[in-house]
């Protein structure tokens, strides 16, 4: 379980995150929505241990982010808004490179299987020749090498083809159901959010998101 308790964060004098409290259970996918600049990426970076909140606490299972940062980090997979992979390396070389950095070891076969589960089959192709959707899948596969329990995704499907979006969505649902991962997922695509997520966290006061979500049976957690 992930427990987020009364966290706040300011940049200079501007408060971006104001007293947010929520928790995520194993196997749940949480959609994170809000207008541009609302603070979605800031919140995700706090949950990834890359930024510290000014106030409040976060806990993953029994581990406090403040006291056990190293342990917590072992169980987090993070896909930032911008793709981070080696363009001149093949898919295989990228997977092997990041496996070397990972605390959990995987065989070549296991790494390949991770890619194939998302229909990423271009194992020997240089990454620069792949489509945007394929690159996103590779970035996601890299974030899963160490079997994280908490997976944080910052707009993983922006600007990619519909087929890849659907494949990524189906894969995430499978990961949540079968491996009991907790997934927090930022997207502007409300169709994707309403079909994929169990609950939705909305930051900011844009009524647009509330209106759409009222028509669905999704639980909405709203923070200003
Ligand atoms: N490192 C930073 N220093 C100062 N302001 C920042 C920094 N990062 C983000 N911001 C500002 O904080 C606000 C929230 O940013 P962000 O979390 O990226 O929003 P979102 O992901 O919802 O678009 C924006 O106004 C942004 O310009
Ligand atoms: Mg952002």
Description:
The chain has 224 residues and is α/β, with parallel strands linked by helices. 35% of the residues lie in helices and 26% in strands. The chain is built from eight helices and ten strands. It has a six-stranded parallel β-sheet with strand order 6-7-8-3-9-10, with helices on both faces. A four-stranded antiparallel β-sheet has the order 2-1-4-5. The mean pLDDT is 93.
Please summarize what this structure is.
The chain is α/β, with parallel strands linked by helices. It is 35% helix and 26% strand.
**Number of structural units classed as domains:** 1
Shape: globular
What is the CATH topology descriptor? Rossmann fold
How much helix is in the residues? 25-40%
Low-confidence stretches: none
Biggest pleated sheet: 6 strands, parallel
Number of beta-strand segments: 10
CATH classification class: Alpha Beta
* Secondary-structure element order, N to C: EEEHEEHEHHHEHEHEHE
Distance between the ends: 24 Å
Radius of gyration: 17 Å
How many alpha or pi helices? 8
Strand order of the largest sheet: 6-7-8-3-9-10
């Amino acid at each position: 379980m992930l427990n987020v308790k009364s966290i706040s964060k300011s940049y200079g004098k501007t408060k971006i995150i104001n007293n947010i409290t929520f928790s995520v259970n194993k196997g749940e996918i949480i959609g994170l929505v809000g207008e541009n600049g609302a603070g979605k990426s800031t919140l995700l970076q706090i949950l990834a241990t890359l930024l510290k909140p000014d106030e409040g606490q976060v806990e993953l299972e029994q581990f406090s982010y403040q006291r056990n940062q190293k342990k917590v980090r072992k169980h987090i997979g993070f896909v930032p808004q911008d793709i981070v992979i080696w363009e001149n390396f093949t898919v295989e070389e990228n997977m092997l490179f990041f496996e070397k950095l990972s605390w959990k070891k995987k065989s070549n076969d296991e790494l390949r299987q991770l890619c194939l589960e998302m229909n990423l089959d271009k194992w020997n192709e240089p990454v620069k020749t792949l489509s945007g959707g394929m690159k996103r899948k590779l970035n996601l596969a890299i974030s899963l090498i160490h079997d994280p329990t908490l997976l944080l995704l910052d707009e993983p499907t922006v600007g990619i083809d519909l087929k890849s979006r659907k494949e990524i969505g189906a894969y995430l649902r499978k990961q949540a159901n079968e491996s009991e991962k907790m997934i927090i997922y930022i997207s502007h695509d409300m169709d994707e959010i309403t079909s994929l997520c169990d609950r939705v966290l909305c930051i900011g006061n844009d009524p647009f998101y509330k209106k759409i979500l009222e028509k669905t049976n999704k639980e909405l957690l709203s923070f200003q």
